[in-house]
């Protein structure tokens, strides 16, 4: 034995040091910030389904992803090895689909907007990107009958693809045997002109004949690019309707407590609605809605029958409004004051709607380091829940860690 | 088995001197670097605060507090690691070739031992693995020492204390060497072992067929590489799609195939084709 | 079963150069067989082939009727013309190394040889003179209780006194009963001990003969036969 002491020592040394290292690594998240939802007003049940995804900057360059729900905080590093494998938390909706329809979901784009689901079918429509060209040239379409497990699956080229700089998919709709994919296409013909010609298209396919049966432009989103701001659009589906909104977004310096000569640290972005279309899938009608009152109602967030809901942020204030699509009149407004958060219009686009409730958690934090949680009941336009994300374990003394709340999901 | 351990011990003993020199070099350069970095930071801070009229807080806001991150991203830290990696890479080849090229041809003795020649292969591979792991463990110890040095030289106000575990996560390079969990650790070093086994096979090809052997060996290494990246690249090009767990299993199977084939080939070459 | 090494029709080329073109001979246990040929004729290659240290292109070698395997190395040993231990080792370390791996290692005999050659256990191999290195090399091979010993040029480049000492080994009990294959050009020192001679030339065995028979029946020495065959 004495002869082998070097080998024995070496092996023991490795096992002990690496062992201790991993035992310590296993408990490392104990020292990380722990968050919870703290209610100010409202109903606790409102946040039962809420999940907020975030990252904590650890050291200088590495991020520790985490999830907060009403039970508390979980760091990705504490999840099972297989969950850690991809390095990020998978989208919960996609995760559920993959679990329930493992075979159907194989090889499908992991974007919730590429799916349409009801109790009978799961439909898929995407324009997958090729590895070599990093561009998309075809539609991939698949429909799963949940009852019989029958699958229809086919691919078709995107017609006149060369005419567009890009074709960006925004959603899938299914009406009986007809599947529609909404895209925004930007035409290449006016490349030298300053204004950009983008249009919302809808491609409709017959899933029995596996053919493209209709292509329609359902809204023009042309804009002029200038230094003052930029254009964006917001597209979402709601029942039989697709709502397409063109926006003009301008940055505003957040000037509170700014001293002379100091560069503003934060910007707020303000959005202005420039165009609004509602497309009805049943009768294939496009209605352009011009808002009579030049009111600053922000961007559309949800639709329920004739009621179209809008949200806007400006100067620490969040406002929600209801617009009647028939009368083109703003009927109702809810104002939530003094959120003390640098909110931007793009954060509204990250809000989620489920069962008539609008969930909003802005990703930026305010000066005091808290992030508001807002749940609004849309039909009554009333506040269901207002609270904030609090750190129950603030960092010790002067140690700083940056924390980002990225986006929310609903279980 | 007993002969394997004897040979392993023997190989480790042969490397020990060089290895200790390597370890001492790494420690000396890293520790000197830590001291220099910490002191130059403090000099800068003292100058700014005492002469430049800056407050401590202003200085910290401007230059960020001193932490081990400053050390591990410096050449003082990375340099010796690079030397260590280069030395071990070199040793992967040297561990075989020195037995042929020394004045006293030890390879005669090794090949004439009344034991399976694969024991020679395994003992050399294990020696490389153990020295790599020992160097990693040693770096963990060194990080702790360097952390203590920073504590001595930089007062608390200017300092951000990070644990060694945070440092390995926070550094792009250290996180490869000491990945997040023990499973990742095993995977990383399993990959390393596979790499060594393939390189050893290439060396044995060369030792068996000389010039022609280099061509066979490189061809073999290329095939092994292609086989290993095939499942991932096919997915990347969109030819197949596997769920992460399936990918992992396929990669493990590929690893087993490559390592298995390398061992079978090496055994054949050592037994029938290798020449003194 | 015959106790012997059988070399059957072995061929070996290095690149395009054919070194062995069908070499066959046998070496009996209890006899000293001498492989003789000019330099570069492939004597060492034959030795290496017997020990499976280099692959043959064709042919077969049997040791006591068996192909060589890991167990064979307890039965046959090869003493190449350079020492096979690490230069950093002391003779003591080399003894320990041999003792670690070989069941056939005979420590008593090793000590005896050490005295015989007047070497010290504390001597470091790198620091030994050429002659002493050759002796240490021989020692490590001969201290194994094996049936066959292969020696490659045991006398090359060694001073006359060491040579005598090494030659003395052949008459001692250290060799008795073993089968020895030796390659050398300096046969004068051991000519009277050789039982069998295998003359190699041009990749083949040109003559294989019993030294005693030739001596008694034809009155020729080995050198005489070599002169005839090689026309020198």
Largest interface: A-B, 41 and 48 residues
In angstroms, what separates the terminal alpha carbons of chain B? 25 Å
Strand content of chain B: under 5%
Write down the secondary-structure element order of chain C. Answer: EEEHEEHHHEHEEEHH
For the secondary structure, the number of strands of chain C is 9
Structural classification of chain C = alpha/beta
Integer-rounded radius of gyration of chain C: 18 Å
Domain unit count of chain B: 2
- Rg on CA atoms of chain B, Å: 24 Å
Outline of chain B? globular
Shape of chain C: globular
Helix/strand structural class of chain B: mainly alpha
The largest pleated sheet of chain C is described as: 6 strands, mixed
Helix content of chain B: over 70%
Description:
The complex is a heterotrimer of chains A (411), B (276) and C (232). With 411 residues, chain A is mainly β. Helices cover 11% and strands 49% of the residues of chain A. Chain A has 5 helices and 27 strands. In chain A, strands 1-26-25-24-23 form a 5-stranded antiparallel sheet. A 4-stranded antiparallel sheet of chain A has the order 4-3-2-27, with no helix packed on it. In chain A, strand 2 (50-58) and strand 3 (62-69) form a beta hairpin. The longest helix of chain A has 22 residues, at 5-26. The model of chain A has no long low-confidence stretch (mean pLDDT 83). Chain B folds into 2 domains: 1-178, no CATH class; 180-276, no CATH class. In chain B, helix 1 runs antiparallel to helix 4, helix 4 (75-101) packs antiparallel against helix 6 (118-153) and helix 9 packs across helix 10 (244-273). The model of chain B has no long low-confidence stretch (mean pLDDT 92). Chain C is an alpha/beta fold. Chain C has 7 helices and 9 strands. Chain C has helices spanning 43-50, 91-101, 107-116, 130-142, 160-171, 211-218, 222-230; strands at 4-14, 17-28, 32-36, 58-63, 76-79, 148-152, 179-183, 196-201, 204-210. In chain C, strand 1 (4-14) and strand 2 (17-28) form a beta hairpin. The mean pLDDT of chain C is 90. Chain A binds chain B through residues 3-4, 6-7, 10-11, 13-14, 16-18, 21-22, 24-26, 28, 31, 58-62, 64, 77, 81-82, 84-86, 98, 102, 106-107, 128, 130-132, 398-400, and chain B through 5, 8-9, 12-13, 16, 65, 69, 73, 130, 133-134, 136-138, 140-141, 157, 160-172, 175, 178, 180-185, 236-238, 240-241, 243-245, 248.
